[in-house]
Each structure stands twice: as structure tokens, then as C-alpha cells.
Amino acid sequence: MGGGVLPGPVDDLGPEIAIDDGTLARTESPLPGPIGLQAQGGTGTSGSASLGEQVVTFARDRIGRSTGSGECFDLVDQALRNAGAKTATDFGTVTPNADYVWGSSVSLADARPGDIIQFRNYRYDRIIKTDSSTDTDFQERPHHTAIVERIDGDGAITVLEQNVPEGSAGQRTQLFFSDVNTNTAGRRTTISVHGRARFYRPQPR
Questions:
Q1: Contact call for residues 112 and 152 (beta carbons, < 8 A)
Q2: How confident is the model over 29-39, as pLDDT tens digits?
């Protein structure tokens, strides 16, 4: 969670994305330009979407500034409270280094804006090769919480988060949740994803 206080253990954490263990918390600047992912997925009922929209709007309004004590948990917690939704403290005891539960568990395929992602040892590595160059980048979230802002397609999701790197304000980041191999117009992109990410749908109080 980027050095903050996190919630406590819960027996049923729902479906998860299980991959290899990640490493230390680091982040690098994203490569310039898009990687050409097509938008898809992420629609739901109007009632749930309304709650999700409130969560997203709150987090968008805090881009460039810190919420609460600056921990990733604080941004998500306050976004949910502002929307009248349950938060992690409603689903278990909040303790350091716990895997928080934020609502009802949903799959990556069913994720939509306003859902909450709880990370554990997550990392992606991206390699982009052309005939003349090779560029690489990565993102890591060892213990972290973020909000889904947009489903970009092919396993890519734009999230709203803070405290990445530690101490940073609210921001928008594209992360990847599925391995990808593409070759378009001489541009070969390989994305490898490791660690675990659980997705939760906010629930009204």
C-alpha cells in the first residue's frame, strides 16, 4: 500500500488473479505514446453504475492532491464513504499489511469503472521492439489499493490512485492485468503480468 495502514484478514477474498510473486515497490515513467489497445467491457446496471460513477468522480477530483494521510487506502476509503458505500472496515478489521475487502468480489472480465482493486505483489513488465530499438518499462504494486477509472481492453485498465511512488498525490495510471503479445506494423509488444489483483464492486450502506 505504499507505506500506509492497511485492513485485516478476511476468510473469503473471492476470485483472484494468481501469478508469480512480484518484487519491491518501484515505478518508472510510462513509455511515450499508446500501445493501441481497443476499448471494451465494463458496463453494468444503472443503479450500480451510479455508485461507481460517484466513486470515480471523487477520485478524479483529487488528481494532483493528496487525500487523508496520503495513503492509497485513504483515497479509496473516502471515495466510498462520499458515495454512501461500505468500505473495508465494514468487511473486516483493518490492520497493516492485510488484504482488504472492499465489497462483492468480481472477476477481471466483469470489472467496470468504480470497482476497487486490491493488489498483492503485483508487477507488469512491458517490452516494445521495433527494427531499430527496444524500449522497456514496468510498474509494481506490492501492497496497494486503487480505483478502476476506465476499462481499456485486452487486460489494460486505467486506475485512479495515490501514494505511488510513496508520498505522491492522486494520479491516473494505466496498468495491465493480462499477458499480451502483439505485432503491428513492425512494432512488437510483450507484456508479462505477475502477482495478484482482486476486484471488488462497491456496495451501498
A1: no
A2: 444 333 333 33
First and final C-alpha spacing in the chain? 25
- Is residue 184 classed exposed, middle or buried when 0-12, 13-18 and 19+ CB atoms within 10 A define those classes? exposed
- C-alpha span between 63 and 91 (Å, rounded): 27
3-state SS assignment for residue 60: helix
Contact 27, 52 (CB under 8 A): no
Least confident of 45-59, 143-157, 189-203: 45-59
CA angle 192, 194, 197 (to 5 degrees): 120
Name all domains of the chain by residue range, CATH numbers in brackets: 17-27+38-201 (3.90.1720)
Are 1 and 145 in contact, with CB atoms under 8 Å apart? yes
Which grid coordinates are listed for 43? 458496463
Give the list of residues 6+ apart from residue 17 with CB closer than 8 angstroms, or none. 108, 177, 193, 195, 196, 197, 198
Rounded to two decimals, the pTM is 0.77
- 100 closest CA partner among 46, 158, 143: 143
Q: Model confidence over 46-92: pLDDT tens digits?
A: 444 589 999 999 999 999 999 999 999 999 999 999 999 999 999 99
